[in-house]
Request: fold
Amino acid sequence: MSVRFRSINRSTPYLLPPSIDEWLPDSHLARFVVDVVNQLDTSEIERSYSDRGSDPWHPKLLIALLFYGYESVGLKTIGCKIMDCSGSNQAK
Reply:
């Protein structure tokens, strides 16, 4: 059983700014977090996903978002702040 994750393409061009590479400086925390998370072995987590339903977000993307949120906004308000920053709360 093979699970298809939503693709992560950090070099996707945008209208403004043209791409994330041009948006974030090389020394930005988000780049460091992505580099660290990409080195993690998430194969056990990936195997726990089923192939039912819509394509899930890749665990590495979710872990990176969580780590970045912990560092950026702290532990107490992490859930709400991550939702605000990621645009996940647009259903309000």
In short: Residues 59-73 form the longest helix (15 residues).
